[in-house]
Amino acid sequence: MKNLFRINSVTITASLIIIGMAAYLWHVPFLELVELKTVDLRFLSRGQVPPGPEVVLAVIDEKSLQHEGKWVWPRSKFTQLVQILSECGARVIAFDIGFLEPDRNSTVAAVTNFEHVIRRLGIKDERLDLYLKEARQEADNDFVFASVIKRSKARVVLGYFFQMTPEGLGHIDEKIVKQQIKNARTSRYSLIRYTSDRAQQVRFPEAFMPQSNIRIIARSARYSGYFNMFPDRDGAVRWVPLVLRCRKHLYAPLAVQAVRAYTGRLPTLVIAEYGIQKIQIGKYAIPTNESGQFMVNYRGGPRTFPHISITDILRHRVAPERLKDKIVLVGSTAVGIYDMRVTPFSNVFPGLEIHANIIDNILHQDFIQRPNWATIFDLAAIGLMGLIPGLLLPRLRALPGMAIAIGLLVAYIVTCQYLFSHRGAWLNIVHPATVLVLVYVSLTAYKYLTEERQKKFIRDAFSTYLAPSVVEQLIKSPEKLVLGGEDRVITAFFSDVQGFTSISEKLNPTELVELLNEFLTEMTDIILRYEGTVDKFEGDAIIAFFGAPNILEDHAVRACMAGVDMQRRLAELRAMWKAKGRPQLKMRIGLNTGSAVVGNMGSKTRMDYTMMGDTVNTAARLEGVNKIYGTYMMISSSTYKAAKGMIFARELDTIGVVGKGEPLVVYEVIGYPGEIDDNVRTAACEYASGLDAYRNQDWDNAISHFKRVLSINPHDGPAQTMLKRCREFKATPPGRDWDGVFRMATK
After folding, report:
1. Which of 115, 448, 477, 738 could pair with 734 as two cysteines, CB 3.0-4.6 Å apart?
2. How much is the pLDDT for 639?
3. Burial class of residue 217 (count of CB atoms within 10 Å of its CB; 0-12, 13-18, 19+)
4. Are 516 and 540 a contacting pair, CB within 8 Å?
5. How many angstroms separate the CA atoms of 695 and 673, rounded?
6. Cβ-proximal residues to 204 (8 Å cutoff; 6+ apart), any chain
């Protein structure tokens, strides 16, 4: 009972481990979402990390709105802001604000109306025209703002956003789209390195069009970047796209462009066949996933970075030292303007500060990422978290088992948290933990049920002595437990191990039983997979049949396929046995299709579901005939006709077996048609030509063809056999009345 429970516990454990690995590889949405929640908990458990000194935030907060007026502000305020920041020595000014529409300025409108009046009155004066032009430019806040950006000592990075889909944009014509794309050209990746031609086919998130800054402002700055963010399914921003495609170009976000402006180095995008390999800005390497998504290593909650109210900057209340050589991010933190996001640290987090976190991550090369070995680690963890309790629980009582499971779970979570906090490695917690819990619950429940239902368990165990298909037939029709049989067209299967007697003499009984059991188990599993019925084992021999008791219309095909798969599996086993220094078994198979009597035969107290008849005897003979031709799978013409098209076989010879009057045409099964290479096909054709010449007693021609077969495959047993026979017949011809049949002298 205990042994049986352990066997089933292994099955349950293995099944749950496989299911856990499949769920991990298939990215089950629910488990993926739970895993993201554990990432948030890991951030909270780690706590705040002090950021570097490079980034400060110039914010439109409630204080600024109170003193400078409600949003939207005129361009003149931003003109003044850029001038002051530049004078204070800021190195980079990055706007998390888009200047997407012209400034509303009544002075410009008045000058324009005055020009129209002068034209209607017919007044022409060059000095007046020049004065009005200068007046209009001085009154045009957009022109002034653009001029200040051009003259600024600080490097200005403009922000904009992408419209990801054309939904709701049907009114925009292609001319406007092209202009918007042109306005955003300063945010394109200009240095792109593809590792291969196939890498150029990699797809990235596709945007419909940029909603860029107005032309005069867009042309004034050397740098720009988008500020799009795409939350996860639960609404939290954990990843930010560092690459977006629009039409044929790839674009960079605001944070990357701010680092570019800060370092003065162009970002290089390296694309491999699987996707993004890396983004490099000078000495700074930026890791992303294949599609260019960057995981933000949040430093903490809101206000982790220095916030400076814009109204204090405009009113010269900020010491220049606080701004000198800084990256100044300009944006909103006022709740009323609503640029708030959900992050692992807070449900109300300024979008501006997310850009600050990304910049700080890059400049200090401090990332949260999936290491290259993460997938292997995760799968190994799933396996171990299932295997350890799977091996220990069957041997332990309830309380020690629970203690082991809880201790293992806690140890794994602590390990993952340490690697996250101190090494920046994100390793999966949910899938290994889920497998551990499921294994513990399943084995505990199974152990309880098996103990309560011991009698039923023992009764069901006897079913292992019978083939599953036979058991199912007997359960449905108990009346079949009587003596008797019925005529059926079946395919009989006989196999035997080559030279098993000599092999058995070299092994002790324990080694022999172990080897034989492994061989018979593997071979039987394949027979049962094709719904064959195992009749009996006679030492190393397997006797089986296809087509009874379950009705199979394609039993000949199944028998042949089973034989092919058995030979393949045996080849794999030989490689394993060779590595272990164990004997390497080779198996001969004989198949024949025809009518036979199948049913329960024996006595009233002991019976066996088996087969009898000439079809069965012939299959047994064919298994032995393999020895003469050096083959390992021989079938009769009846089997070949029934399975033709599904297997690749060659005609070997026409033989007369002992005890059977009619000669048999026999074939060698080589494999599946789609897997046969040209050399094998050529050899089969040459063999067929040689066989035809042999039957016509054209010995020289036959010898020539069989030699060509051997030139392709020197170990071809049938060709060697036929070549030797041709030479013998050439020396001693069989006579004109010879019918081409090779008659066996023994069974």
Report:
1. 738
2. 97
3. buried
4. yes
5. 27
6. 243, 244, 245, 250, 291, 292
Q: Which residue has the tokens 């004034």?
A: 220
Phi, psi of 596 (to 5 degrees): -150, 160
How far is 158 from 223, CA to CA, in rounded Å? 6
Exposure of 63 by Cβ count < 10 A (0-12 exposed, 13-18 middle, 19+ buried)? middle
- From the list 560, 411, 589, the residue with the least C-alpha distance to 495 is 589
Q: What's the burial of 235, exposed, middle or buried (CB within 10 Å: 0-12/13-18/19+)?
A: exposed
User: How far apart are the C-alpha atoms of 250 and 743, rounded to whole Å?
Assistant: 77
Nearest to 405 by CA among 431, 418, 427, 386: 386
Residues of the chain with pLDDT > 70, as a percent, come to 89
- pLDDT for res 300: 94
Pinpoint the alpha helices (H) of 630-677. 637-643
Distance CA 13, CA 581 (A): 31
Global pTM reads 0.58
| Each residue's pLDDT tens digit, 443-452 | 888 777 765 4
Residue 407, burial from CB neighbour count under 10 angstroms (0-12, 13-18, 19+): exposed
Radius of gyration over alpha carbons of the chain, in Å? 41
How does pLDDT run across 594-627, given as a tens digit for each residue? 999 988 777 665 667 789 999 999 999 999 999 9
Nearest to 531 by CA among 595, 601, 470, 598: 470
Q: Residue 263 and residue 482: Cα distance in Å, rounded?
A: 91
| pLDDT tens digits for range 197-240 | 999 999 999 999 999 999 999 999 999 999 999 999 889 999 99
Assign 259 to helix, strand or coil: helix
Unique residue bearing structure tokens 């850009």: 355
Q: What distance, in Å, lies between the first and last C-alpha atoms of the chain? A: 46
Tokens 């009764």 sit at which residue? 459
> In the chain, which residues have pLDDT < 70?
1-7, 105-119, 121-122, 125-139, 338, 450-484, 603-607, 746-747
